[in-house]
Design brief:
The structure is a single chain. This protein has 2 domains: about 1-110, no CATH class; about 115-199, no CATH class. The longest helix is centred in the last third of the chain and has 22 residues, at about 145-165. By secondary structure, it is an alpha+beta fold. It contains 7 helices and 7 strands.
């Protein structure tokens, strides 16, 4: 469903409309009994007409206890804009008008089974930072470099799940997309398709 939906709705006027239509479509194909028993969620990000980043979440999860999702709902809640309307103001001090008023920081949003992301992500950064101190290692410099670096970390986490968990719920293939207000800069799925064409 996902690729067809994305292609069909790519011309949506804004991310809110995209998220609301996605919610309706999901309710049409997912039985309420399934949602009542399973956590499900989506993160949607992009740029609005003012070239400001937006981050929307769509979930049936009612809360968290430690690392566990709890209180599953039989339907997805209304889409929530978590960055521009909330975190940019509360965490970064944005005045809702001038982008330069926000502090230059990074917001991290996690979805799904994020135990390994919490345990491994920053540890990998620390290990790689030590290697990047050597002159024969190159630190990521471009958005495409960063996309490949993020994909490497996800691949590492998927390897952990493949080999050391009872249920492999984070698995390959891993796709990473890096974009800005002008469009997509890096798409790892395209690189994978090119590699298949060469083999």
């Amino acid at each position: 469903m996902a690729p067809k939906y994305i292609t069909r709705e790519a011309a949506s006027s804004d991310l809110k409309s995209f998220a609301e239509t996605l919610r309706t479509e999901l309710h049409n194909v997912l039985p309420q009994g399934v949602l009542q028993q399973s956590p499900s969620g989506f993160h949607l990000c992009g740029y609005n007409k003012s070239s400001l980043p937006e981050f929307w979440s769509l979930t049936n999860v009612g809360g968290l206890q430690g690392y566990s999702h709890v209180n599953f709902k039989p339907q997805y809640g209304s889409p929530s804009e978590d960055f521009l309307r909330r975190d940019a103001v509360e965490q970064l001090g944005w005045d809702r008008e001038n982008p330069a008023s926000a502090e230059n920081k990074i917001m991290i949003y996690r979805n799904g089974d994020f135990r390994a992301h919490v345990a491994v992500w920053e540890t990998l950064d620390d290990a790689m930072s030590k290697l990047f101190q050597f002159s024969d290692f190159e630190r990521p410099k471009t958005p495409s470099d960063y996309g490949r670096y993020v994909k490497f970390k996800f691949e590492f986490i998927s390897y952990i799940y493949k080999n050391w968990t009872k249920k492999n719920i984070i698995a390959r293939p891993i796709d990473v997309i890096v974009s800005n207000s002008s469009g997509i800069i890096f798409d790892s799925s395209r690189e994978r398709e090119k590699a298949r064409g060469r083999s």
